[in-house]
Specification:
The structure is a homotetramer of 275-residue chains.
Chain A: E1 4-8, H1 12-21, E2 26-31, H2 34-46, E3 50-55, H3 61-74, E4 77-82, H4 93-111, E5 120-124, H5 137-145, H6 166-190, E6 194-200, H7 206-213, H8 217-225, H9 235-246, E7 257-260, H10 264-269
Parallel strand pairs in A: 1-2, 1-4, 2-3, 4-5, 5-6, 6-7
Helix pairs in contact in A: 1-9, 3-4, 4-6
Chain lengths: 275, 275, 275, 275
């Protein structure tokens, strides 16, 4: 029985990571968009991969639980890659919180207990989480203490606190991901498994270009131009980091976030890039 | 002319990293301890490595500049690994600041402009930097604004502010390393190079065991037992992370810190491990 | 000035390898098929890669020399990946020899002297070269002694010797690639560079499926079923091997072939798979 | 229950590989030399590794079976590294055959059926196997057909056929390793596992330097000087190749040999290096 790789979210980044990790494994592709998983499954089958699919709504406990049940039936789950996310240019505030905040909480809680010993998971967060003010210790404790379904009832995630801004909701949700992953490292550790996140900077995917073209585009361009690498990221850059975190070479790494941003957060933090 | 690898600090971790990265390169080993570099150079020569040595005092601009001059004369410097550090069980407050804070600042400033295009550097910091209260924006700006020699004159690094505690000095210096590396990513970027740090958790080296046996040992043991991995780290775990950060696969990573701690910081942050 | 990656041949395997190696580099895509390079260049540009293109006919010294000139003008050439090849289902005997045998010889000779110190190249050969009878020492010496343009005049590559069989020409050319790469390791070594080949087994690309559906398909299926892994290969498997050979971790590997075939050659050699 | 790594033979190469692969695993160190395993176990324990030891005589089925029983009791065996070997400067012909030929055969047969799904093994062979005349198909079939204990009774391994030369015995045994590993890929495949070998060239270990100083030293020096890399190998070079073969990135590689020789076999094959 082959090891099972679960990839949740099959956009450009999800596809790149799936193709990278899939050799020799049974891969379960999941996404909200049925035609997206069908299309990728067809193409990966053509390329020799052993692929299964299941539609999922990550904001639904029932839907994610069904996915986990399917995955567990396929064999020992050794890798979980969670790339499902909504950007502020794509969706309203509420949907962003349901997918980017609650969806991650549900995945961490549902998959943590069922992954195989030695397994590893990666959540794709965002460098936006680094450009959002730090949480207070009380806010961090509140995120850890809330069940996934209670998260959106916390005052810090109210529309008022977020000034009705999808962009702010996105940044706060992505910052919360780091608290969630840090906290979940205990639960995953009980399974002998590891869980980390990756925070991509400005990546040149369809979604990334959408954001570059949005109001926040000028700031993004300033970040890139003033960053240490001076370039946009590619899906390969993110897949390289994910591959490392999932590898035996990272067996002492859990509960952390790996920022892969070309140095753009540094450009902001040091005042070189400006809004 | 071979590529040049510079390894500053040749304790257990420095040796492991040096042996990992040295194949095919000219390696320049540097340390405060002449007999330590002579011994490692002998053993690495026996094992087929192409090794040079030079004594260095990282707290001295003159000494580090001399090292840089030697390195540049050997060929294009493509990798710099800075592992030189003093732990609170080894040294008084002032020495810790001079080595762990000023030494890093000097290395970043002196090597940044002379490394080859495509080069990468890694500073070994410590997870202690994550267990120290966050700096204020003003403190971060002060660290960035000060020359290496001015750093210890900042109020935040005064014996009073550090309560005359070598342990606190260590934690604050290691936290400062992240600010320094983030800031230096611009300077290194101008050379087409990258610079990052790694923060090891409780690693089972001679220095690590010394710390475990010290007053802070009970806390360390609690951190390890409540961490996601439940184990001590090894020099190999750190070398694996350093290898990744120095590799082409990390070409979009600069100005960041990679925490390799087995989940022990998470155990503290979530209240599972207690002082 | 960025390091330059040259990818010759942009089919499924070439694309996968190009995307894997391209981050942080200037990538020069070359192929006989102009629309194939235009299409891949567009898609890679969208994904944030820094891409240039040039049409090439690998069987022409003039055309490959022009490619090398373009590449050298872009910056230091640190990686060359040669995936251009014709399969027996696609082309007549003469074309196969011109591309798979002469094309490789020309690339090795033209690029060897101009790559940067520390550079590495990989030629994609085929496991078919392992299913072809071994050459005599005299035949190997003849391959080494002939200029690229003289190769097809050798008796061993005559239509008679190859029984007018494109399949036999393919196997013999691919076996010759190993002799060519072994021999070229001296020339590339003079540049401080390395050169190796990879021999993929039955890979599920468009070309691979074409071969599976051909007369030799039954034999291929028997090889896969009786192989140690029992599965078809994917472009990712090959890219993983190429990534290793191009990495600093392979700095002591040159002049060799890496067989990535899932164990299918072993199945034939041990008599488990039969024609 | 942790994954189990078995390292058979703990000389310089065995130690380097063990330290590289051991993080996060239970490591079982085995060697003929009890004090060697005790010493390495002590040092690895100090460095935070989880280590067990057992003395083994690889030329004895009973002894290797006892090792396998111990290993299996520790947990799922996911990696087996066989570095046990005798060089012609160390031992007489008979001992070389018993260790380098029979020992490998026994390990392949005994561990193949008990390793975990997804496991991988590596046998350290030698580039000497490439400098020995090729076997005839009948000889290869004889190697495959013989039980481990019958091997030394084959005519090709008689003292006469080997001209009473330990050096020739060594080369022939190492060449046979490739036939053995190729053949064993079927048995290991039935466990869902992979098995490969690595053939180091002239490596600067204690054993390597012994050989350099021996009668064959002049030839070795000629090989190195005329090789593509022009340098001696290091234990790190071999560990890098082993790490690749054991990694998920090599999941389509089984039954093969990876030559890591700096191009020295190429120097001999092409006539640049001479006896």
């Amino acid at each position: 029985m082959s090891e099972v790789l679960v990839v949740i979210g099959v956009g450009g980044m999800g596809e790149t990571i799936a193709r990278r990790q899939a050799p020799g494994k049974k891969t379960l592709l999941a996404d909200f968009n049925q035609s997206a998983i069908d299309s990728l499954a067809d193409r990966m089958f053509t390329d020799g991969f052993d692929v299964e699919t299941q539609r999922v709504d990550v904001s639904s406990r029932e839907s994610l639980t069904a996915l986990a049940t399917t995955a567990a039936a396929l064999g020992p789950i050794t890798q979980v890659v969670h790339t499902a996310g909504l950007s502020p240019t794509q969706a309203p505030l509420e949907a962003i919180l349901n997918v980017d905040l609650v969806g991650v909480a549900l995945m961490l809680e549902i998959f943590g207990p069922i992954v195989a010993p030695g397994a590893a998971g990666v959540v794709i967060s965002s460098s936006s989480g680094y450009l959002t003010p730090a949480f207070s210790p009380e806010q961090e404790a509140a995120i850890r203490g809330a069940s996934p379904e209670e998260l959106t009832s916390l005052e810090m995630f109210s529309a008022d606190a977020l000034r009705n801004s999808p962009g702010m909701a996105y940044g706060v949700a992505k910052r919360a991901n780091r608290v969630q992953v840090q906290n979940a490292s205990a639960l995953w550790g009980q399974s002998g498994a590891r869980i980390n996140s990756v925070s991509p900077g400005v990546i040149s995917t369809a979604m990334g270009r959408q954001e570059l073209a949005s109001d926040s585009g000028a700031f993004m361009r300033s970040m890139v131009e003033n960053s240490g690498t001076g370039r946009l990221g590619t899906p390969s850059d993110i897949a390289d980091g994910v591959t490392f975190l999932l590898s035996p070479q990272a067996s002492f790494i859990t509960g952390i976030d790996l920022l892969i941003d070309g140095g753009s957060v540094a450009a902001v933090a040091t005042g070189r890039a400006r809004m």
